[in-house]
Specification:
265 residues, four-stranded parallel beta sheet, 13 strands, alpha/beta
Length: 265
């Protein structure tokens, strides 16, 4: 009942109040099927933070596949990892087929306020030498730790392929990192037409939401928290073929801005 130190009023979904809405945003990991079904056929619905598999919803990344908004009434705001990767990869359309193997490091805030609170409590307990370390959200100690991602049904590779127009083969593994904010993505990239490392870096940073971090060797969540840009770090050629790429974005701002851009469209 409190948001930003101010009282917040929370009401049950009222189908009559939403009957004439042009756009409705549903927030949360579970889908309010009853609320969606009660909307008018002309209402566009945007799902935020949805973890349920939903084949009839179209993932939209503003500026990448925005043209699909006009053809769908049910839109899902993609995961922060999909947002990062699609903005980086979209300018590579002229490089032919893309093969990517990515490792995504998700922050505690990907588990909403409960995840943040548990990480804070664990950190305090460790620093105060206390054994009272809550584990309800993560199942173990996440503070100063790294564990596999748990309890998600989201197909990130399928989501990325649905957004991208270029021929794409993607494999994505997700871990839960002991940081509060920011999604970090390290990936191996192999292109049908190799542009060279300098041209590749220029292409990866071509999207207006992507900035090249001035100190790529030091890029991490601490440097990016609070930024509305995707920060591109190292782009290193592999000894054999392909490239290693590192990028970080504030997951909360990136996701919120994409949802807002969809609604504005």
């Amino acid at each position: 009942t409190e948001v930003g130190g101010q009282a917040a009023l929370v009401q049950a979904t009222d189908p009559e109040a939403l009957a004439h809405a042009d756009v409705v945003l549903f927030c949360g990991p579970e889908i309010d099927h009853t609320g969606i079904e009660s909307l008018a056929p002309s209402t566009r619905t945007i799902l935020l933070d949805c973890q349920e598999p939903l084949t009839e919803a179209t993932p939209i990344v503003a500026g990448v596949n925005s043209e699909e908004i006009s053809g769908t009434q049910l839109i899902v705001n993609p995961s922060s990892a999909t947002l990062v990767l699609s903005h980086l990869l979209a300018p590579l359309a002229d490089c032919g087929a893309i093969d990517i193997v990515a490792h995504v490091l998700e922050p505690a805030s990907a588990r909403d306020q409960a995840g943040l609170d548990e990480l804070i409590d664990q950190t305090r307990a460790i620093l105060s030498m206390s054994d009272e370390r809550p584990q309800a959200v993560f199942g173990t100690q996440l503070a100063f730790n790294l564990i596999p991602w748990r309890s998600t049904h989201r197909d990130l590779a399928g989501e990325l392929s649905a957004v991208m127009k270029s021929p794409l083969s993607a494999q994505i593994f997700t871990s839960q990192a002991g940081v509060f904010h920011c999604c970090s993505v390290g990936f191996f990239l192999d292109l049908e037409k190799d542009p060279g490392v300098e041209e590749l870096q220029a292409l990866l940073s071509e999207d207006p939401l992507v900035d090249v971090y001035p100190e790529p060797d030091l890029l991490g969540p601490v440097a990016v928290a609070g930024s509305d840009k995707i920060q591109l770090g190292q782009v290193l050629p592999s000894p054999s073929t392909g490239y290693w790429v590192w990028a970080v974005a504030d997951n909360l701002i990136c996701s919120a801005n994409n949802a807002l851009a969809i609604a504005q469209s």
